[in-house]
Design brief:
Elements (H helix, E strand, L loop, with lengths): L16 H7 L7 H9 L5 H5 L7 H4 L24 H11 L2
Length: 97
């Protein structure tokens, strides 16, 4: 069985653990699947899929691009709000990559 991963979104008790396990399909309770997931828990997804390309709102919402030209600074994720190489390095270290 894989260890539980603490999250800011999870509650601290195990009161729902048994119900969650029972709700899993049979194939998801396989020891082989658990072992495979355990082996890959520290594999960086970027090594498999490549880095995530920059998000282009104009490409996603092609029908109404006029409203994106009047963005305020709170909707601008470039420049000082973008992730730095140091941010990414700290994240990779925290994830065990």
């Amino acid at each position: 069985e894989l260890p539980d991963i603490d999250s800011e979104y999870s509650d601290s008790g195990d009161e729902g653990h048994d119900e969650k396990v029972k709700a899993l399909p049979h194939w998801a309770q396989s020891p082989a699947l658990a072992a495979a997931l355990y082996r890959q828990q520290h594999v960086n997804p970027d090594d498999i899929f490549g880095p995530i390309p920059p998000l282009s709102m104009q490409e996603i919402f092609k029908t109404n691009t006029a409203r994106f030209s009047k963005r305020t600074s709170s909707a601008c994720w470039e420049g000082t709000d973008a992730l730095t190489a140091d941010d990414l390095a700290r994240y990779n270290q925290a994830m065990g990559y």
